[in-house]
């Protein structure tokens, strides 16, 4: 079984930073991205007086946009638009 201690050291190094960390767990054919958005999302949400449910959904949409943009292989701007 793989040790998760690297996540603890990663957390200590990037506690206040925004980051995306790809990961892969081979025995389970599982891969994904760990996303931490602290100061950036806080700054976006604090500039507006959104109700709590709206702020939560907006935060999730921002995290989704970051994950999708990080997974794409192109040099440009990624925009997430929903209805």
Q: Could you walk me through the main structural features you see in this protein, from its secondary elements to its overall organization?
A:
The chain has 83 residues and is an alpha+beta fold. The chain has 3 helices and 2 strands. The mean pLDDT is 80. The longest helix is centred in the last third of the chain and has 20 residues.
Question: Strand sequence of the main sheet, in spatial order?
Answer: 1-2
Average per-residue pLDDT, rounded, comes to: 80
The share of residues in extended strands comes to: 15-25%
Topology as a string of helices (H) and strands (E):
HEEHH
Instruction: List the domain count as a whole number.
Output: 1
* Main sheet properties: 2 strands, antiparallel
| pLDDT < 50 stretches | none
Note the quaternary state here.
Answer: single chain
Rg of Cα set: 15 Å
**Which word captures the global form?**
globular
- What is the overall number of helices? 3
**Separation of termini?**
43 Å
Helicity range of the residues?
40-55%
Note the main attributes of this structure.
alpha+beta; 45% helix; 83 residues; 2 strands; two-stranded antiparallel sheet; single chain; globular; 3 helices
Short description:
The chain is of the alpha+beta class. It has one domain.
Q: What are the SSEs and their pairings?
A:
Layout: H1 5-13, E1 19-25, E2 30-36, H2 39-46, H3 52-71
Antiparallel strand pairs: 1-2
């Amino acid at each position: 079984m793989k040790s998760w201690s690297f996540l603890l050291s990663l957390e200590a190094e990037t506690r206040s930073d925004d980051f995306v960390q790809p990961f892969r767990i081979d025995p389970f054919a599982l891969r994904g991205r760990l996303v931490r958005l602290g100061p950036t999302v806080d700054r976006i949400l604090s500039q507006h007086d959104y109700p709590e449910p709206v702020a939560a959904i907006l935060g999730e949409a921002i995290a989704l946009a970051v994950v999708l943009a990080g997974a794409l292989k192109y040099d440009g701007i990624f925009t997430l638009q929903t209805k």
